Amino acid sequence: MQTLKNDVLTIQVKEHGAELASIKKGSVEYLWQADPAYWGRHSPVLFPIVGSVWNKIYRVNGKEYELGQHGFARDMDFTLVEATETEVRYRLVSAEETLQKYPWPFVLEIAYRLHDNKVDVIWEVSNPGEDDMYFQIGAHPAFYYPDYDPQTQERGFLSFDREGVLECIRIKEKGCVDAGPRYPMEIPENGLLPLTRETFDVIDTIMLQDSQIGKVALHRADGSPWLSLVFDAPVVGIWSPPGKNAPFICLEPWYGRCDSAGYEGEYKDKDWMNRLAPGEKFSTSYTIEIA
């Protein structure tokens, strides 16, 4: 476990999955502490897929491969390659184990940089191979509701950098979406979308695609800000375990998403796929800001 700190925040990161494991401001913990009774992770990085492929099978040049939800990077040990008081960087390199599940060589680097009241999460994916490489990558950080009381309905609010109506798509079956229908989600005039203990019992995941938003913020029950995420990802998922009255919510920028239900085409033709030519590198980041 690596610890980074400045005058405002202290964060911890694990080598396993290069996973952010703690964000503290003073004595207050903001990141979910992985109680398996609800969900046994903190903030896994999703690679080389986001979500599920149909029937856990995908195809490359007609050959079938099996891959579980969210890929394998979150369950592998990364190598620490750099550590300072305010930045830490990890690396995962393809090996025989990964090539059996995902037929492209890759180098994945994940870094965390601390400054003021912000944490930058940095991803770099490189293609050291001789063929075009296809991949998805996404975030899955879970944050405590600031005023959680299991006996009440209210869980606070969300706000976005967009007014009016957002369009959602929904999970249909086997963790895959019905990509056709769009479900309107109207933002109240005050900009605060209420969250309750039952918000995710019906819809499972709020899924926004087509770069509809570039910021999402979690607010306390009185409307005051708690934390926010800023990103340029084209797809965003918002989730809390349905039916569990869980104490946390996940705010998830994605460069990719699950299959459409019934999809049996080539992996490279999936919705929201990223391509790297040989020798190319994909670089991006998102920022967690604590109020």
Walk me through the structure.
With about 290 residues, the protein is mainly beta. It has one domain: Distorted Sandwich (Beta-galactosidase, Chain A, domain 5). The protein has two helices and 25 strands. The model has no long low-confidence stretch (mean pLDDT about 95).
- Principal-axis shape equals globular
Low-confidence sequence ranges:
none
CATH topology term: Beta-galactosidase, Chain A, domain 5
Largest sheet: 9 strands, antiparallel
| Secondary-structure element string | EEEEEEEEEHEEEEEEEEEHEEEEEEE
Which structural class matches the secondary elements? mainly beta
Helix content: under 10%
Can you list the strand order of the major beta sheet? Answer: 8-9-10-11-25-21-20-15-18
Counting structural domains, the number is: 1
List the helices and strands and how they pair.
Elements: E1 2-5, E2 9-14, E3 19-25, E4 28-29, E5 45-46, E6 57-60, E7 63-66, E8 79-83, E9 87-93, H1 96-99, E10 107-115, E11 118-126, E12 133-135, E13 137-139, E14 142-144, E15 154-160, E16 165-173, E17 176-186, E18 193-196, H2 199-203, E19 205-208, E20 215-219, E21 225-230, E22 235-239, E23 248-255, E24 274-276, E25 281-290
Antiparallel strand pairs: 1-2, 2-3, 3-4, 5-13, 6-7, 8-9, 9-10, 10-11, 11-25, 12-24, 13-23, 14-23, 15-18, 15-20, 16-17, 16-19, 19-22, 20-21, 21-25, 22-23
